[in-house]
Amino acid sequence: MRARRAAAAALAVALAVVAMLVAGCGGSGPADAVRLGLFLNVTHGPALIGLQQEFAKGLAGLPVEEQVFASGPEEVSALLGGSLDAGYLGPGPYVLAESRAPGRLRLLAGVVTGGQSLVARPGSGIRTVADLRGRRVAVPSHGNTQDLTLRLLLDTADLRAGDQGGDVEVVPVKNSAVGEALKQGVVDAALAPAPYGEKLVDKGDAVAVPRVDAVIDAWRIPATILVVTEEFARANPEATAALVKANAEAVARARRDRLAVARRFNALLAESTGKEIDEDVLLASLADMTPTTDIAPGAMARMVRAAEVSGYSGGPVPPAALVPRPG
pTM for the complete prediction? Predict the structure, then answer.
């Protein structure tokens, strides 16, 4: 049974990689719009409010066409496949793309730091990384930032995921389904992006694991970064510069006004699912993350290490790819 589960995990990663590297790039030359990807997550708060103001005015005369994605690997596939020009995503998928398709994407800026936490099933006894031995831990998808962060955490305790011959099973579970998976005992813990971990704790479906969260916080891993395809950046330098400027303005506004981010997120969530998340929970999760265009020194290199530890890396990632290059 474990062998089959490990094979399924490996297949999921392989399919994501194949999707990223499919033939067919976007046309070269000046664009007539900026196709911008993002997630419906509070960790993408600057992008969510930016679409109402900073991006609504267009970028160097080009309208912005937003596309919402469910995961970073899916968004990277769109970027490398030519159906997307720029995107907000986690650092994990970006690093994996750089290891397998070097030079195709350009890191423009940071957006949000923090925004992920480990929660556990009540009564599970999970208090440290070492307590994950023999357990099943949910992440949103294989190859995303939470998956890579989890595997880096396991490495600190000399543990490995089941698909690497270890005894911690990493299970992809949609954020909306993690609560039920914990209740049913399908998983014992979850490394979740905000605000889903906080929501589970607020409802009593999970408990926070502060000792592990302290380690994650110390790493200062970005929750969200902004990238652009190298092809778009070279063909449209004015629009790329305008994108960097608009992002900086939206990030500054998100830092000043968490309530605006919370309400915009809830409005979009209600429009998409018919549900909202308690505003106090959203504000608490936003208080634990920092909107900033800066990326902490060493944070991206840590993600490269995570890609190597996970076995997902396709090759070396040059240091130049790990720092923002807006121009």
Answer: 0.91
